[in-house]
């Protein structure tokens, strides 16, 4: 698919030395009901060793974006347009063999549920060792040493014996650690973590996030962290990209987005998040309505039917004109900077505390 329209989103920064650069990415699925525009003009950058948190409600296009980076969409049924470069290499026109190699050596995925990523038929050690043999040409003996070393790094006790266990012999938290070890097997430059702690209890969640941070320091990997949980991104990420209906609606550093969010959708996400400091009875503030169908998204700003601030914008701009996302710290919204600041101070900040 080739479209030559002007991108709706400016890149996070001028094209340059970003390790991962996504430009005007479109991922459209042909279905019986029509074309699902799951990602529709997305741009972002990620530097080496940094963490980008991608947040948004279910269906906003987070996973589809990351599957596109990993080259895991079925290209016969998926139209992918735009550009994804990793360390200067264009991925959208790489063939399956090149992508498989890149998935082994340069980028790896940490899934939500270790049981779907680990095979029940092979020992944990074998599964950690395999990519090292396949992509680094290591001997079985060296790969086993590497597996034991990685199991130790991810905090599995007695790794010399646990290396021969099968996944079902590990607890949920240990399996998640083993999957992280598997992802790190070839020391990838990019880790994509899709809700890596959702399936775990809160204490184990915190341990796994700490582990990821430590390993990132040691291995220097860049991380894309996909999550519904703004608390997780606040803790882990350097930058945040807020997605809605297949597009980025706000981007900035963690501090900018969490302390002075600019988009009404981000206000909604923050308002629907439980806070430790709040009274137990204090109600959450869910975003009204539900995310739109991507078969037939609303005209103009896709968030306008759910937005409580459209009456501040003159005419029918919100329903008629798609707002663009400017470069750098930005929000794709027709409210002026002053209107946003006033609305945030008057209506949102008191509720967020
Ligand atoms: N293969 C596919 N064919 C058709 N539609 C798809 C396909 N894969 C994803 N979609 C649609 O694309 C949209 C974005 O899905 P995606 O999984 O990226 O959302 P998400 O933000 O990751 O949500 P969640 O947080 O629930 O994982 C959804 O409407 C989904 O139904």
UniProtKB/TrEMBL annotation:
GO molecular function terms listed in the Swiss-Prot or TrEMBL record: ATP binding; ATP hydrolysis activity
Entry's localization field: Cell membrane
PANTHER family from the UniProt entry: DIPEPTIDE TRANSPORT ATP-BINDING PROTEIN DPPD, OLIGOPEPTIDE TRANSPORT ATP-BINDING PROTEIN APPD
UniProt organism field: Streptomyces pactum
Cross-referenced CDD domains: ABC_NikE_OppD_transporters
Every ABC transporter domain range: 22-270
Membrane topology per record: Peripheral membrane protein
Entry similarity comment: Belongs to the ABC transporter superfamily.
Cellular component, GO, one term: plasma membrane
Protein name: ABC transporter ATP-binding protein
Keywords recorded for this protein, A-Z: ATP-binding, Cell membrane, Membrane, Nucleotide-binding, Transport
First-listed, main subcellular location of the protein, grouped into a coarse class: membrane
A GO biological process held by the record: peptide transport
């Amino acid at each position: 698919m080739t479209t030559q329209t002007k991108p709706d989103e400016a890149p996070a920064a001028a094209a340059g030395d970003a390790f991962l650069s996504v430009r005007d990415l479109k991922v459209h699925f042909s279905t019986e009901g029509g074309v699902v525009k799951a990602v529709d003009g997305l741009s972002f950058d990620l530097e080496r060793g940094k963490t980008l948190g991608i947040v948004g409600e279910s269906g906003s296009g987070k996973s589809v974006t990351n599957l596109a980076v990993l080259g895991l969409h079925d290209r016969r049924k998926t139209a992918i347009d735009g550009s994804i470069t990793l360390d200067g290499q264009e991925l959208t026109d790489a063939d399956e063999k090149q992508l498989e190699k890149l998935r082994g050596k340069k980028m790896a995925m940490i899934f939500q549920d270790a049981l779907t990523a680990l095979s029940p038929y092979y020992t944990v050690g074998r599964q950690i060792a395999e990519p090292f043999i396949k992509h680094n040409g290591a001997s079985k003996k060296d790969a086993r040493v590497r597996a034991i070393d990685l199991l130790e790094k991810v905090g599995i006790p007695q790794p010399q014996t646990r290396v021969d266990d099968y996944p079902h012999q590990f607890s949920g938290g240990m399996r998640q650690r083993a999957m992280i070890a598997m992802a790190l097997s070839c020391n990838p430059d990019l880790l994509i973590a899709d809700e890596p702690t959702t399936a775990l209890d809160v204490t184990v969640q915190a341990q796994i996030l700490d582990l990821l941070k430590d390993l990132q320091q040691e291995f220097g990997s860049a991380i894309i962290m996909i999550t519904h949980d703004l608390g997780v991104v606040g803790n882990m990420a350097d930058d945040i990209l807020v997605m809605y209906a297949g597009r980025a609606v706000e981007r900035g550093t963690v501090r900018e987005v969490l302390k002075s969010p600019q988009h009404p959708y981000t206000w909604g996400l923050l308002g629907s998040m439980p806070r430790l400091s709040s009274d137990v009875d204090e109600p959450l503030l869910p975003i009204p309505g539900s995310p739109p169908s991507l078969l037939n998204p609303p005209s103009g700003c896709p968030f306008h039917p759910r937005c409580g601030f459209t009456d501040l914008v003159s005419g029918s701009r919100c329903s008629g004109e798609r707002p663009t996302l400017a470069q750098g710290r930005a929000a794709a919204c027709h409210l002026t900077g002053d209107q946003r600041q006033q609305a945030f101070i008057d209506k949102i900040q008191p509720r967020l505390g």
